[in-house]
Amino acid sequence: MSDKKVEKCGERCALQEILDVIGGKWSMSIIYALFSGKKRFSELERLIPGINTRMLVKELKNMEANGIITREVFATVPPTVEYTLTTKGEKLEASINELYKWGMEYVA
Amino acid sequence: MSDKKVEKCGERCALQEILDVIGGKWSMSIIYALFSGKKRFSELERLIPGINTRMLVKELKNMEANGIITREVFATVPPTVEYTLTTKGEKLEASINELYKWGMEYVA
DNA sequence: GTAACCACTTTCAAAAGTAAAGTAATGCCT
DNA sequence: AGGCATTACTTTACTTTTGAAAGTGGTTAC
What is the Cα–Cα distance from A74 to B107, expressed in whole angstroms? Predict the structure, then answer.
């Protein structure tokens, strides 16, 4: 009766968590961009070609809610916001690099 | 002017390829199910709770087009169709297992 | 004073996803 | 012989998500 989540869905639960974090169309690009250190909103926008503001905002919010990034606001002028990977986020590096290698190898 | 794809987008191209394959809402679940061997359409439907027929069809077609699964039809009655991972598909196992471990570790 | 910078928000159309029912060929049961 | 089940999908109608573009508000450089 304890260990709820693991007991309840185990494998599939992990899968759900993963998909919620990296399943989105842009999440992986964002995480990838953040591997090289914290970034401001506009930096991310420039680093990820094709993304639009709305989606970047949404994904960042989702990632913050999922605990894989932190958002820090600076009362500068103009205002500055920095996004950083948490430990949980950083731990995705191995997985994403693996996927990445696969992608590089299999681009037809 | 040659080596088009690599030259044109390099890193980002690999990312696109990856997302096209595992970025869809259900792709990873399907690939995961196929790691344990070929499956029929209805087996996949049963193995992946929550998916609907239309989406399963769509994802399978997409995966076939992406060369990560093969589709084999048997003229039995009722007809049987088997889906199998290609080598390209199988090569995703390491990456997905990595992600998987992450998911298991960080399910809050 | 007006144009630009930053980090968003809003609006609306388009694309993607979901649910549920339908299709065609056959076999099994009664 | 009629009806139901099985398999692998289609089709239709609908909801949700995403995308493109313009707008907001405070400040500062020109």
Answer: 31
What's the rounded Cα separation, in Å, for the pair A102 and A48? 20
Q: Which nucleotide is nearest to B25 (CA to C1')?
A: C17
CATH of the domain at B84: 1.10.10.10
Give CA separation, A13 vs A8, B26, B97, in Å.
8, 14, 14
Which residues lie closer than 8 Å to B82 by C-beta, 6 or more apart?
Answer: B38, B39, B40, B71, B72, B74
Distance, Å, B10 CA → D9 C1': 38
> In this structure, is the CB of residue B41 within 7 Å of any atom belonging to strand D?
yes
pLDDT in tens, A6-57: 445 667 777 878 888 888 889 999 999 999 999 999 999 999 999 999 999 9
- Which residues pair with residue B69 across a beta bridge? B85
CA nearest neighbour of B47 among B62, B63, B36, B58: B36
Residue-range definition of the domain harbouring residue A76? 26-106
